[in-house]
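Sample entry (470 residues):
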Amino acid sequence: MMQLHTETPPPPALHQSISFSSNMSMNSSIQIYRSRPWHGGFPSSSKSSLLYSFGDANCMEQLLIHCANAIENNDATLSQQILWVLNNVAPPDGDSSQRLTWAFLRALIVRAASTGTCKLLTAMATAQDYSSLALHTHRFSVLELANFVHLTPWHRFGFSAANAAILEAAEGHSAIHIVDFSSTHCMQIPTLIDAMANRLEGPPIIKLTVAGLTEEVPPMLDIFSYDEVGSKLVNFARTRNISLEFRVVPCSSSDGFRHFIEHLTVHQQQQRHQQQQLLCPNGCEALFINCQMVLHLIPDETLYPCPPGSSYPPYKSPRTRFLEGIRGLNPTMAVLVDEDVDFTASDLVCRLRSALDYLWIPFDTVDTFLAKGSKQREWYEADICWKIENVVAEEGLGRVERQERRGRWGERMREAGFRGVAMGEAAAAEVKSMVEEHAGGWGSKKDDDDLVLTWKGHDVAFAAAWVPAA
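Predicted structure, serialized as tokens:
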């Protein structure tokens, strides 16, 4: 991984991270295979081997589902029985299946204690020593985060795909404006700056406007502003002979970034004439909307259902209003990257099943790039536990993990007035090259027009490019 410094190194591939430092290695030879899914019953076993049998990964998952049902039905006796078994077969420092089970067990106890739906279980959680259930998410320095997000393709996939798509679409434009909706605090941007600096036609003027989330979701920074990030990016761009204007607009995903969209609309109206005259003789600056693992934070219809009798005017969720808002900006391109899973179900058990069928993946992958007992591994798994707790234990506005499947996002984008465009061969090649740097279980594929990241054949995340429909 390269560092941000003033020397001009040979241009790297887009998937090669331009970051601050790196001293972490990856082991590409370790693979831990796991069969998915499983829909069987409980094992038949003698008393002496009962706990051993219940320790089977598939059986632990089935126990979690029964436990969730029992908690929702206020069945304290059954809940306690299942929790006793799980507590004995799923230590927080066990194998990947045991740690996954422990994370969900912890989230179910937190839900019971916070909602009071199972009073005896709530009392048990309060009275007993559950200090081990406390979740300590790490606050990263900029340097730590730059290293951390590049340990795995989970984020690098989106960085590589989006950067390649933006670079191709920006050809011929001498001024570009990138609007960044991202959960990783601009860690994607240095590589994009470096690629822009090496364009044959010369570097463009870049304006970067960042959505500064007021909500805190992992990974979290240990600073309360983007000042340090912005300063580093501006200085780095200067070493690449690029003029970069950096701006952060504090905003909230809870209202669909409404104030941010309004800010962009007003700014666009004020600057259009000036851009045409001074920056882009052949038209205004090229506008790119970059959405990286953050749009699922916007509330959907499951949080704000259509009120009775509100068929006219049509009710629109914050998620729908957001997509219509960015369409109104008439961007050159919008790139959407997110996790390919559905966490929108209102029913806890349905949501738990979806989470179990998806969140085994980060636990399964961790052994390929982080040593057991390392601080980085502790941080990584704490962030996964945060997500699990949010999916399982939270409701209302507090439940921000509301991912949707790739197909549903496609429907939403078309309804908002976009049409999909194919991710180019350059983007596919960049992603493939990046994935090959990691453990053998990772892969990528092209599905219709989109790029998809996979782990052992299971879809993990997707990247899709959209332009305004005629």
